[in-house]
Amino acid sequence: MANSIRISLSKRQLSLLSNGKVVRTYPIGVGKIATRTPTGSFTIVSKVPNPGRRPGGPRTVYGDYWMGLSRKGYGIHGTNNEASIGKYVSHGCIRMHNKDVVNLASRVGVGTKVQIVP
Fold first, then answer.
1. Among 33, 41, 93, 104, which residue has the least CB neighbours within 10 Å?
2. Which residues are in the L,D-TPase catalytic domain (predicted)?
3. How many helices (H) and strands (E) are present in the chain, helices listed first?
4. Residue 97 falls in the annotated catalytic set
């Protein structure tokens, strides 16, 4: 199965695709005007479960999972701020409900293609 991810910033929606067909969509929060989420083609370069449960880790920022993108400093991660989903609120990262980011992380691996469109 060849999975990929397409993110629509205007819809604030992440779509998981399998062989080019949408199999699941998730609501997301994206970068605010001053710190916009970058558009373009990226790949997932790292996956870290429970990044905030490590000593000194900001769980409220990264939630239950972090998937780093090939654009340094940007990633797809969970959040404990449920109200931020569906809004332009982040510093450029893609925010997801914790249950959704854990589900997505179980379906994609390092090297998965990520397309971010306006």
1. 33
2. 3-117
3. 2, 10
4. no
Amino acid 80 reads: N
Which residue out of 16, 67, 77, 114 is catalytically annotated?
A: 77
Q: Please state whether 19 falls in left (phi above 0), alpha (psi between -120 and 50) or beta.
A: left
Q: Which domain holds residue 67?
A: 3-117
Token pair for residue 59?
Answer: 């769980």
CATH number, residue 29: 2.40.440.10
Catalytic member of 93, 101, 104, 114: 93
- Residue 98 phi/psi, 5-degree rounding, is -55, -45
Residue type, 90: S
pLDDT per residue over 4-26, tens digit each? 999 999 999 999 999 999 999 99
The Cα–Cα gap between 49 and 67 comes to 9
> How many folded domains does the chain comprise?
1
